[in-house]
TrEMBL record:
The keyword NAD applies. The active site is at residue 80. This is Glu/Leu/Phe/Val dehydrogenase. NAD(+) binds at residues 185-190. It comes from Metapseudomonas lalkuanensis. The lineage of its organism: Bacteria, Pseudomonadati, Pseudomonadota, Gammaproteobacteria, Pseudomonadales.
Length: 350
C-alpha cells in the first residue's frame, strides 16, 4: 500500500496511522491542507474491508474538507479521520479514549468532529482526552436552550438560503411563494429544510424510505408524499436531494425535470462528469459541498464560541458564495462544480 503514489494523494501535508493494542484501535488521520487554519473534519467509523480502503477514504475526504471550509470562508484547513471498525459492534469507551489520545497527539493540527458511525457521545468521550474535538455539544441552540451538538438545523438553513439564491438566478424569482420543491429524504436536514420552505410559502413534495418521516412532513407541513422513484420526474422548480449520495446518475437524469438541483446530500453526482451534462441541459446545480456547509460552520461556531447572530450571518454567506459560483459559471461557460473548485483554490491559496 503506497501513500505518495496513491491515486487519491493530493499533496496531503500529513497522513498518520494510529494503533492501540489494548483497545484494538486502528485509525488514520489525514491533514490535507492547513493554509487557512487547523484541519477540521469528521471522524468516520466504518468496517473497511482493508487498510487500502480506509486510506483511500481518508485521503479523499480530507481533501474535500479543505475545499468545503475554504468555500465556507472558515479559518480552517481540511482533515479527516477514519477508524477501521464496525460502529454497531466495535465501539467502546476505551476505544474512543484511545482515539482521543491519537487526535491529541497531532497537537491541534487536526480537529475532529462527528461523522458516519460517530456522534455526540463519541465526541464527548474524545473530548475527555483532547481539546481538539468539536461538536461535543456546549453552545446555546439557535432557538435557545442547551445545544446538543447537532449541526443539522444550520445545514438546513444554509440549504434554504442556497435555494433562494438559485431560484433568483435561474428563475428570476425574488420570493418563494408557490415555488414547487421536491425533497428527497425528510430526516434531520430534509425536514428542517421543509419547514423553512413552508414558512416561505413554497409547495412541497417529499419522499422517504421511512414512511413515518414522510407522513410527518405531510401532517405537519402539508407536503404531498410521493414514491421513491416518482420524486425525480415531478414537474417542480427545485429538486432537493437530502438523503444519500450518488443520486444524480444517468438513470435519474433521464427522469429529472427540475431546472434547479439544490439539496444537502453529500456527493450527489455519481460521477463528476455529470456536471457538464447538467450544464448542457440548462439545469442549475448547486454544488453540494457549497450549499451544505451550514453544518461545518455550525461546528466551528460551537468551538469558537461565536454568537447565534454571527452564526446565522455566516451561514447566510453560503448564498453569496453560490451567487458568485452561478454568475462565474455562466460567464465562463463552465460547470458550477469546476467554478466552485477554482473559487475554493483561490481562497485556500493553491
Ligand atoms: P438523516 O439520516 O437524518 O436523513 C436522511 C433521510 O433520508 C432519512 O429520513 C432516510 O429515511 C431518508 N432516505 C434514505 N434513503 C432514501 C431514499 N433512497 N429515498 C428517500 N429517502 C431516503 O440524515 P441527515 O443528517 O438529514 O443528512 C441528509 C444528507 O445530508 C446526507 O447525505 C448527509 O451526508 C448530508 N449532510 C448532512 C449534514 C448535517 O448537518 N446533518 C451536513 C452536511 C451534509
Amino acid at each position: 500500500m503506497s501513500v505518495f503514489t496513491h491515486v487519491e494523494f493530493d499533496h496531503h501535508e500529513q497522513v498518520v496511522f494510529g494503533h492501540d493494542k489494548a483497545t484494538g484501535l486502528k485509525a488514520i488521520i489525514a491533514v490535507h491542507n492547513s493554509n487557512l487554519g487547523p484541519a477540521l473534519g469528521g471522524c468516520r467509523m466504518w468496517p473497511y474491508l482493508n487498510d487500502e480502503q480506509a486510506l483511500r477514504d481518508v485521503l479523499r475526504l480530507s481533501r474535500g474538507m479543505t475545499y468545503k471550509s475554504a468555500l465556507a470562508n472558515l479559518p480552517l484547513g481540511g482533515g479527516k479521520a477514519v477508524i477501521i471498525g464496525d460502529p454497531h459492534r466495535d465501539k467502546s469507551e476505551a476505544l474512543f479514549q484511545a482515539m482521543g489520545d491519537f487526535v491529541d497527539s497531532l497537537g491541534g493540527r487536526y480537529i475532529t468532529a462527528a461523522d458516519s458511525g460517530t456522534g455526540v457521545t463519541e465526541m464527548r468521550i474524545m473530548a475527555e482526552r483532547s481539546r481538539h474535538v468539536a461538536g461535543a455539544g456546549t453552545r446555546e441552540a439557535l432557538g435557545g436552550g442547551v445545544r446538543d451538538g447537532n449541526p443539522s438545523p444550520s445545514t438546513a438553513y444554509g440549504t434554504f438560503v442556497g435555494i433562494r439564491v438559485a431560484a433568483k438566478h435561474r428563475l428570476g424569482r425574488d420570493d418563494l411563494t408557490g415555488l414547487r420543491v421536491a425533497i428527497q429524504g425528510v430526516g434531520q436536514v430534509g425536514f428542517s429544510l421543509a419547514q423553512y420552505l413552508k414558512e416561505a410559502g413554497a409547495q412541497l413534495w417529499v419522499c422517504d424510505i421511512h414512511e413515518a418521516n414522510a407522513r410527518k412532513a405531510a401532517e405537519q407541513l402539508g407536503a404531498q408524499v410521493v414514491g421513491q422513484n416518482e420524486i425525480y420526474g415531478l414537474d417542480v422548480d427545485v429538486f432537493a436531494p437530502c438523503a444519500m449520495g450518488g443520486i444524480i446518475n444517468p438513470q435519474t437524469l433521464e427522469a429529472l425535470r427540475a431546472p434547479i438541483i439544490a439539496g444537502a446530500a453529500n456527493n450527489q453526482l455519481a460521477d463528476a462528469g455529470l456536471a457538464e451534462e447538467l450544464r448542457r441541459r440548462g439545469t442549475l446545480y448547486a454544488p453540494d459541498y457549497a450549499i451544505n456547509a451550514g453544518g461545518i460552520i455550525d461546528v466551528w461556531y460551537e468551538r469558537s464560541g461565536g454568537s447565534e447572530a454571527e452564526l446565522r450571518k455566516h451561514v447566510e454567506g453560503i448564498g453569496e458564495t453560490l451567487r458568485e459560483i452561478f454568475v462565474r459559471a455562466d460567464s465562463e461557460g463552465r460547470t458550477t462544480t469546476a467554478v466552485a473548485d477554482r473559487l475554493a483554490e483561490e481562497r485556500f491559496g493553491r
